[in-house]
Specification:
Elements lengths: L1 E2 L5 E4 L14 E4 L3 E8 L3 E16 L5 H5 L6 E5 L2 E2 L3 H11 L4 E7 L2 E7 L2 E3 L2 E3 L2 E17 L4 E4 L15 E15 L8 E6 L6 E7 L2 E6 L12 E3 L8 E10 L2 E12 L9 E5 L2 H7 L10 E4 L2 E10 L2 E9 H8 L8
Parallel strand pairs: 18-23
Antiparallel strand pairs: 1-2, 2-23, 3-4, 4-12, 4-18, 5-6, 5-12, 5-14, 6-7, 6-8, 8-9, 10-11, 12-13, 13-17, 14-15, 14-16, 16-17, 19-20, 19-22, 20-21, 21-24, 22-23, 23-24
């Protein structure tokens, strides 16, 4: 849960977790040889797997521990132990066993800083330990926002994947997406955001991830992905074209079906945070009856207005599930390394 102001509380909508630049996209010629940037709006749920670059410290054990004595903190990324790159939680446990109860050095990332901390593992009945809870991977469901056929790049979520315990952005070493099907919906209510529940296609990956950023997840899509089959491109709206008033979102709330639902853009924020540019309200009774409004897992649902893709849904208001926030599509493209400049 994220406090977005002193009065309004909102939550990121997906993923629901259980535990380089590219060339500009496709352009089309219209009017007086004007070039219009186009993308494929998607709106289909996808399963996501992320593996961290190192291991994330999500908490410290109670009492006096080697981790506390060394100055290790929740949110730190342990990426090296005694000069050896840490690949997973199991790998770190192996390195601890090989090191024994002698002083070692852990290399960590703390925000923009890198630090080397001396630490002496403690021997217990279960082996050697630091006294820290760590995580190296996450998995869940979210929504794909766009696909760029020219570069093969897709964008999803409209916000970064953060650790559920620390709120820190998950450092991406590798990751992939899988086709997913929505099996059930937990309806949202005041004070209790709902959620989409789905099944993953575990036998194959449909794309690989290259970035987990504040403005979304980005990767390249395999040609055989079911999520974009048969979909058409639309023009990309510049932020100055987006206005208050009627719009639609594309959302996958039942099986494999993606439907367009009516919303109202109530407010546009100038100079707001990168992921909170639009305030929207669901007006479509079909979606209200099915989900109660905006639910977790719909994060990344594309927003369209006047035939153009303008952004993606990112948050739901805890106090009112019929309303939420969205991000400009331009911000997602910039974060993806696609930029928003037209080809010359």
């Amino acid at each position: 849960m994220n406090a977005l102001s002193s009065r309004v509380m909102a939550v990121f909508l997906g993923l629901l977790f259980t535990c380089a630049a590219y060339a500009p996209g496709v352009s089309a010629m219209t009017g007086e040889n004007a070039e219009v940037r186009t993308l494929v709006p998607v709106g289909h749920t996808v399963g996501v797997k992320l593996f961290a670059d190192g291991v994330l410290v999500v908490g410290l054990s109670d009492g006096a521990t080697p981790a506390r004595a060394s100055g290790l903190r929740a949110g730190d990324i342990v990426y090296r132990f005694n000069g050896t790159d840490v690949e997973s939680t199991e790998h770190l446990q192996q390195l601890l066993a090989e090191n024994g109860a002698v002083c070692a050095t852990v290399s960590i990332r703390r925000g923009a800083k890198t630090l080397n901390l001396p630490i002496t593992p403690e021997e217990t009945a279960g082996g050697f330990r630091l006294g820290a809870w760590i995580r190296d991977s996450m998995a869940g469901i979210g929504t794909m926002t766009f696909y760029d056929p020219d570069s093969g790049v897709f964008g999803a979520l409209g916000h970064g994947v953060t650790d559920v315990d620390t709120g820190a952005l998950m450092p991406l070493e590798s990751g992939s997406i899988m086709d997913a099907t929505v099996k059930a919906v937990k309806r949202g209510a005041k004070g209790a955001p709902g959620e989409l529940r789905g099944d993953f296609e575990l036998t194959r990956d449909s794309g690989g991830l290259y970035a987990n950023t504040e403005c979304g997840l980005f990767g390249t899509l395999a040609a055989e992905s079911d999520a974009v089959a048969g979909l058409q491109e639309v023009a990309v709206a510049e932020r100055g074209e987006v206005t208050t008033g009627p719009a639609t979102i594309l959302a996958n709330c039942d099986g494999d079906e993606v439907c367009a639902y009516e919303v109202e853009l109530e407010r546009i924020y100038a100079g707001a945070s990168p992921t909170r540019n639009l305030l929207l309200r669901v007006t479509d009774q079909r979606l209200l009856d099915k989900t109660g409004g905006i639910v977790q897992g719909m994060s990344g649902s594309p927003i369209l207005q006047n035939g153009k893709i303008v952004g993606a849904v990112t948050h739901v208001l805890v106090s009112d599930p019929t309303r939420g926030y969205g991000i400009f599509i331009e911000n997602m493209l910039d974060a993806a390394g696609l930029g928003t400049e037209k080809e010359s």
